[in-house]
Amino acid sequence: MTEKKQKLLGSIEESRLVLVGIGTEFHITEESFVQWDMYKKWKKLDQEQKYIWMEPFLKRMWLKQETHLAEERAYASIRKLLEGKNYFIVTLCTDGMIYKSGLAEDRIVAPCGNMEQLQCQAGCTTELYPWKEEMGQELMQAVLTGHLERCHPFLCPHCGKRLEWNTIDAQIYNEASYLPMWERYTKWIQGMLNQRVCILEAGVDFSYPSVIRWPFEKMAYFNQKADFYRIHETWYQLAEELKDKGNSISHNSKDFFVNLFV
Questions:
Q1: How many Å apart are CA 40 and CA 35, to the nearest integer?
Q2: What is the tens place of the pLDDT at every residue in 1-54?
Q3: Mean pLDDT of 75-83
Q4: What's the pLDDT score for residue 26?
Q5: Phi, psi values for residue 36, rounded to 5°
Q6: CA geometry: angle at 237 spanning 247 and 87, to 5°?
Q7: 238 has a pLDDT exceeding 90
Q8: In whole angstroms, how far apart are CA 1 and each of 204, 235, 238, 249?
Q9: DSSP per-residue letters across 50-97
């Protein structure tokens, strides 16, 4: 493993451009969420599930308020790895943890959305709404006092339907939030031609393969100056045409980056 780490570090150092894809291995697991004191209190209060609409918003509060050491350390290693480099990151994660990492937000595109903006559940408008701290305070107060009925669903001002997170899991996903950054990303990859580039997949499985896995393979194949790295505990295998220029690392990608500089 040490040899593979050194090879990756050397490749990053020698490359003019670095393209990173972050996949589902970087997702924060649900196990620690359901053990959160606030979640358990809410669950006990809502045994009839009349207020199930609160759960996604409680999860966002848990993500923001609690410490997630493994994820934070992994992202810190990626930030250190990319320091001073011309990079772009495509992430499939919707938890927004990457935006707490110090990585440049204008070099990150999240085509699956994230829990920072709200959208209309019915898709009546492409307008997006920011999450406001007073929403969280109202929700927290309702749980702490045991009066869930005092917190009302957050509603679309146009049609009155509920608001939900602007992620791929929405009933009608509003893609408006990521498209400007996606356009910036596509322009950036046009500059990869005939450049020394390192293409790195971290924890990417076959979830939405047309976003990262397949295009990354294609870019690595056609760019003769590209180094390609695929890190995943299960789906680390390389396509036949990439075996001579690609590097596969059979390891959980989050753990790999947690220990990259150890």
A1: 7
A2: 688 899 999 999 999 999 999 999 999 888 889 999 999 999 999 999 999 999
A3: 97
A4: 95
A5: -65, 135
A6: 50
A7: yes
A8: 19, 17, 18, 8
A9: TTGGGHHHHHHHHHHHS--HHHHHHHHHHHHHHTTSEEEEEE---S-G
Q: Taking the complete model, does pTM exceed 0.90, yes or no?
A: yes
Cα 227 to Cα 12, 196, 209: the distances in Å are: 9, 8, 20
Dist. CA 246–CA 228, nearest whole Å:
5
Q: How many CB atoms lie within 10 A of CB 106?
A: 9
Cα dihedral across residues 208, 165, 40, 27: positive or negative: positive
More confident residue, 23 or 116: 23
**Mean pLDDT, all residues of the chain:** 94
Of the candidates 224, 220, 228, 223, the one whose C-alpha atom is nearest the C-alpha of residue 246 is: 228
β-strand partners of 250: 232
Nearest to 199 by CA among 75, 88, 44, 97: 88
CB-based burial label for 19 (10 Å; 0-12, 13-18, 19+):
buried
Q: Which residue has the tokens 């499939």?
A: 92
Does 261 have pLDDT greater than 80?
yes
